[in-house]
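Quick board copy: two proteins, each given as sequence then tokens.
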Amino acid sequence: MRRYGKNTDEDDIRSRPNPKGNRPRTNIRPKHEDAADGMVLTVDRGRLTVLVDDRIVMAMKARELGRKAAVVGDHVSVIGDLSGKKDTLARIVRIGERTTLLRRTADDDDPYERVVVANADQLAIVTALADPEPRPRLIDRCLVAAYAGGLTPLLVLTKSDLSPPDELLELYGALDIPHVVTSRQELESGAAVARVREQLDGKITAFVGHSGVGKTTLVNALVPNDQRRSTGHVNAVTGRGRHTTTSALALPLSGNAGWVVDTPGVRSFGLHHVDPSLVIHAFPDLEPGTEGCPRACSHDEPDCALDEWVEKGHADPARLYSLRRLLSTRERTEGD
């Protein structure tokens, strides 16, 4: 065994090379100060379409982002080839802070959370009044997801030529949700599109609804220059529509007046991720009454202070009924 003295010659010492290369490992990441700002328009199998200035750029997520994923509506920072030319690819190196987030799970027992869209201002819940029949339970679930995610809900009722909207509107009247009622004839003439458009200008609006309600037809009418969706029909036997939208897509309204986000049709809207305590924030007339509630109150139990709050005339009883219906929606099935 070779031993070295006090005056060892450095040339005599053997050094073992770094098996992973000569570059030392570091936790310091580049700041990418020259990155351009963009908005994610759609995501397809790991490739993201990003609007950078007035160009459409294809990009992928940088490895340094780890498990963090960008979704439609995200504000991102992009580097690399930003020309937008065919067969070019940029990298997303940062994802901006999100102001709102629409999320869902496959069902209430599924812990896997699916992010539908980020930074949307409102959620347009599209429901047919007939063919297929309306599903109030699904509407309730969409409302809970909207309130929990910070989005303002908007009811869009289609096919009013087949059934009147009065009964459904009465069910949600206490919630003071803005609504638009349309018929198939009005869609063809453009009158319905104008009324819906009034609710969308200057906002980012995500459209959601189960298959066959006319959501894609309405989106195509709102952004006729960007149609990429086919429209389906309702099965006469099952009463269900066929999925025609397979991925979320952000489309600009004419005149740079806002954005429409078309999302895939849903047959269920799981709320495993939703904290029920967040729903009360959508009821500012009821929220002060919860100060007297017992700890961890579900707002639907004998000691709930909201009953006394309503009895004293601080809020409409119909509002308390609506709150409790929404809070209990996770415990019910999504039947019609």
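And the next:
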Amino acid sequence: MEIMNNWNQFLTAQGARHLAAENAPDGTALATSVSPIADFGHSLTVPQLQEGFVAAITDQGLIGLTGDEAASFLHGQLTNDVEHLNQEQVRLAGYCTPKGRLLASFLMWRNATNIYLQLPRAIQPAIQKRLQMFVLRAKAKLHDASVDAANQVMLGLGGKQADAVLSAWFPALPAAPFSKVEHALGTLLRVADAFGSARYEWLTSAATARDVWPQLAEKLAKGGNDCWRLSEIHAGIPQITAATQEQFVPQMVNFELLGGVNFKKGCYPGQEIVARSQYLGKLKRRTTLVSIADASVVAGGELFAVSDPEQPCGMVVNAAPNGVGGFDALVEMKLGAIEEGSSAAGAVRYGSAQGAAVHFLPMPYVLDALDL
């Protein structure tokens, strides 16, 4: 944790503002002594992200697994295929309760010795402990990879200028979303595109991060966790936080559309319910992108249709300041409410039927006709 504190001190000297836990958009305190970096004086706007940005990501934890049976163990726990995950791939994966509700969502990749699961730092200890309970006699060991010196720092980059800037250090960038390259300066993950451009996570040592930060910040708009979360939201990528654990089956947050569920793999906790939801079409909910002119928006906050004001029609999955006084968010809602809100301004509101209007934005991918 000392290295991470030194990195945070460096960022503070660069003008970073720390986010008080009680003000976190995901409504949770971090289970760490390191307060997260919110921004560098102001929230970045979508046009700034489109042009090019670098984000200091300090609210994400990393679970590492080693051992001969690490892949087969995880394969039996998660919604996605782990056994066939190779060292060039990056995947999304979910961890469900026996009732099929998501306890966590992961960004997952591997190298020659480790499988890595990235998730919010606030829920990492409990999730890691729960996974450890099921290892039993499997030849697999879990550890907190957030404290590994080589993976200590996460930088997020995206927008039109990101490729050119990164090429100063990486002779070859990952060719497609959800792929990666290994380099002497760290691991470069290409995640889901946003704003028509590639986005990357660069995992490196604190020493390397301090060396490259001035050059990155000179050419790109600089931000913190708020900036990175806003880019994730506009990429349509949900992340389960403490505020939304056990609220959604994977399809409610579009996880199967994003390649986060493999329906051909073997059993895992909740698999029967997830499969039934897919093939019997019993759900009628999806997640979509919205903007809300209200500074109080948090993950877990409820949405209401004006036409049916007595009961909520949806819930905020993730939210981030949009730089113009409001929040952009991914919201899970009834399909009927999505249709109603998309066609009539002010038909859906935040907090109550009298709350701030919810403005629907185009999604970066098609919500297919599963009628979930």
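Board note added afterward: The first helix runs from residue 2 to 13.
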